[in-house]
Amino acid sequence: MNKPYTAIDDSEITQGVNKPTSEAVVPKAYLVSFILITLCFPLWGFANDITNPLVKAFSKVLQMTTAEGTWVQVAFYGGYGAMAIPAAIFIKKFTYKAGLLMGLAFYALGALLFIPAASAQEFVPFLFAFFVMTCGLSFLETSANPYVLSMGPASTATQRLNLAQAFNPVGSLLGMFVATQFIIQKLNPASDDERRALAADGSTTALNQLSAITANDLEVIRNPYLAIGVVVLVMFVIIAIKKMPRTEEKSESLDIKGTFKRLFANQNYREGVIAQMFYVGAQIMCWTFIIHYGTEVFVNLGMTEQAAEAKSQSLNIYAMIIFCLSRFICTFLLKYINPGKLLMILAFGGMVFTLGTILLEGVAGVYSLVAISACMSLMFPTIYGIALTGTGDDAKLGAAGLIMAIVGGTFLPMLQASIIDMKVVFDTFSATKFSFVWVLLCFVVIATYGKRSQKHLPK
To answer: How open is the CA angle 74-101-26, to the nearest 5 degrees?
Structure first.
């Protein structure tokens, strides 16, 4: 296939060749393929943000502690950690299209595994389904981002990726909406205490009643995943039959051992992976435990538990909207502020709002928690770009390492949940409020990286 543009080199992107240009952001030769790849971006946004509220949902439905419920996050984000580097190697050996198809196949399989999981009424099958699904998401993200970058001239690569990424929050907002309207509000209104009372009763009638409630609730959780599974299968078929341009070099070799050696010796990259891990942890903690935090506050203000949960999830949607709007503002500010400095400023803002979450009472604390999203908006891509600065061809596996850092969404939320489960008061703070100390620590790490990274960036 004759291409009007040659594949761009990763070193060009990481060394900042993307300057204002009159060239097309998406050349006509790539337009249809670009649209198809862009449609994959909201797919993983949907999966991420429909899943966060399920920590609370599973804890309630299966009568588990909050810490046990966070195994949802361990399984979900563990898939990213397990598959990012294998995905990069697979794509290097084959093609971006092969990586996309592999990702879509795993995604659809994981979503459809919710059928037997719901029938079994056991937690472990759900965890396996989440893990399989996010193995697919890891393939998708590792394939789609560099594929979009390569679909045209290097001078418009960043604009092209930003255009595609603009559709990711659409999927995130849809995922949050579905979680609120079709999961949280559809669950049986029986409270945690009422469910525990039925289990403690032990009579056949009580246990049958509890089993019926649990079966219905698990079907409510299952149904949106079946719907997205069908959508993903449709995307798989369309991309499979569409002739896609091959933009990567066929003969390029991959020196895995040498690449890792150079990356581990690169202080800026090494610290970037750590900062990314803590960022993802902070994001997941804020967007997962806003439901626990808000529910506690609103119940204390006189709401029923179900109404408080629904309101808290609605506030999560507002947090995502603020996140999206802030991304455009921060992107504009990058024209005038060094990325490392802006990252440091955003992390400092996150620290201030986190302190407000811990120290302020009532709805003021809830609003502080929502406001944290404004500070997180540009952190992931900013850390991503800073960490890859100057890595040249090593950026191919380096990017996979930064995707693997999403594993921060596993152990950090579990540590926070362990504090929430204590259900004790630390001086004047509830356990839920005090648990956000972990989020504060994350922003300290990110602010430190923003400060230290400035010496590695162009003036």
So the answer is: 105
